[in-house]
Amino acid sequence: MPKYSSETELCVSSCTLCPKLTQNRNQIVNGTGPEDADILLVGEAPGENEDENGEPFVGRSGDILNKALEKNNLSREKIRITNCVRCRPPNNRDPHKSEIENCNTHLNKEIDAVNPKVIIPLGRVPSETLIGKIDKITNMTGEKYTYQSKSCEAEILISVHPAATIYNRSLKPDFNSVFEKVTDIIK
User: Fold this and answer.
1) Percent of the chain predicted with pLDDT > 90
2) Whole-angstrom Cα Rg for the chain
3) Which CATH number does 3-186 carry?
4) pTM here?
């Protein structure tokens, strides 16, 4: 059963619900950033760099994300960043449905606690996790949805994953436009 650290209700300190992930991880990668942020970014799962550093979106994807934030005068220090799954899948594979379901309680608890104005799922997996079945993510980038729970109502703004812009540079303008829209929403 997952255990939360005493320092914050949002940090999972131990969990063994997903044996393959537990065997593969160096550490659990919890969300970072203010617990009352207006903007919450949700990734898929930690990669190798994230698993080593214990922080989401470091390495190449993090660099791309940071540039998009800077370009739109958004400070990473004022944004909460988390993942659907808190442990690195072997060989950076997509998390299995059961792994996403096992971690979904943590994600929902974090969203409710942060109570952001805007949630940006970065890529297909977090988009599907938050809004259900999706069409092609590249066609949906920039689309708005509503997240609703008992204690939170936020706008969801779909985005491609920053890494997608490495492999397909034509996605960069759409990726950047998501953060332009965010600034309008939070004003």
Assistant:
1) 85
2) 15
3) 3.40.470.10
4) 0.94
